[in-house]
Amino acid sequence: MNEDYVARSAQLAMLLEVSAYPKPGNVDRTHDYIDTRYEHFLASSVAVYPILREAAARGSRNERGVGELISRGVEESIAWQHGGNTHFGALLLLVPLAMAAGACERYDTKEIKRKATEIMQNTSMGDALEVYTVFPKAKVKVRRDVPELDVMDEASINEIREKKLSLYAILTISASYDMISQELVGGFEKTFEYAALINDFASEERININDAITHAYLRLLADEEDTFITMKFGPEKSKYVQQKAQWIVTRGYKRKEIEEFDEELIREGLNPGSTADIIAAALFISILSGLRV
Amino acid sequence: MNEDYVARSAQLAMLLEVSAYPKPGNVDRTHDYIDTRYEHFLASSVAVYPILREAAARGSRNERGVGELISRGVEESIAWQHGGNTHFGALLLLVPLAMAAGACERYDTKEIKRKATEIMQNTSMGDALEVYTVFPKAKVKVRRDVPELDVMDEASINEIREKKLSLYAILTISASYDMISQELVGGFEKTFEYAALINDFASEERININDAITHAYLRLLADEEDTFITMKFGPEKSKYVQQKAQWIVTRGYKRKEIEEFDEELIREGLNPGSTADIIAAALFISILSGLRV
After folding, report:
1. A–B interface: beta-carbon pairs under 8 A
2. CATH class of B3-288
3. DSSP symbols for A200-218
4. A36 to chain B: closest CA residue
């Protein structure tokens, strides 16, 4: 697929995801965090366009470079805005997906999924080093006392070198406790499942694009414990968030209940970042497949 | 300047402009019109990226093509969203400015202003035909009983051909009643004046980027009668809007007063579209000159 078409689809996905509201706990067009505001996400979505385009172009030439592109995406993002981490998780997912879309002649769900999976399987130690080296710059706020997260410090970079771990190999380790890693090594299952769900919601007459996105977001929050919350605040909090989301989904996505849930999570600083990242990736697939506003 | 840098600056300007709120009468992140919603502006900003990049690239090679690029920008915009006119006026301003920025080695206010002015002066009859032919597709909603607007129908296309009018020549005619045309043939005076004002506002410590934009918007609304309102609703309405904006500015941009003004204009469907277009162009210059979120 044309590289500018792919890049625009991915960029629009990032913009629609962050704009959708109310989206309990995360930045949206009506909710900022103190250091990370809505405008930082707009600027970051703008900043990474050339990287998304290059991902599609490399894909079309069957070239590699997942790690380098993610690293350059983070660098562009922080050069254009001062709000810290906005799109680290989203870029992890969008870069291989954009490469896969670039490699396909036309839109084909199965083929893009297969190709993206293959691109991740073919990653190298170089890809791993790029991603782990740029990680501190992305300023992802995680508790430093979570042992699993040691993989993201200098010791882990040494380990990658010593054991010659590819990006795929090291993400296989983190897949047990991080849903983004699980997507990347597990064939992007949730991404494609929720792309189909967004398309279903959007095809309903009484549901606009904003609500299609927030409903899909709540459904994912209800289906899967957000591992970013687990890592940052512990499993009790992420279980609580999941159960509350389940309650809202069961009762039919009532606006007032969603808004109260949003206010509660924003107040406590509980941001289900991984869920938002997967919804952004799912939206990219939806848009590629023809979803329009 | 680098073409992707120029395109990103212009795109971010479009996104920050439409997101800024409350922005009396226009679509913002919290206000939609029935047919044209906030998401349509997001999609349109995404859609035109390759055109903005090409404008910068052509500028760097001293090539022409203002009319063709505006026409292609409109085509891309309507291919990516179904909300009608979003960025026709903004594209008229951003295309020659992006070409001028592309032609400059580095950021230089005077040089970009001079170059953009020259690019407009050098437009041809072909440029005029491109813009006037694509105009109906842009679905700009104007009263068809305003005599001056006959220039935008088929008769005007014949007139362009017969009199061999360049884009510059025909915009010189409309400059007397349309502030966008006035910008395009008058050296982009307001654009650069308000770019400086946005930078001033943004440098104040208690003002965030959103308020810097809405304050500049209100100041322009107070300084100049919005000609889009004049053309669509008549001079009494545009005078009223200007006076109310003057009242708000004089009283120090009180949030509650801005919100009430916004609700009033939205209720009556009075959208000062030309003012928003000039603020988008001004923001582009601000960002090029270093403004960051």
Report:
1. 86
2. mainly alpha
3. HHHHSTT--HHHHHHHHHH
4. B293
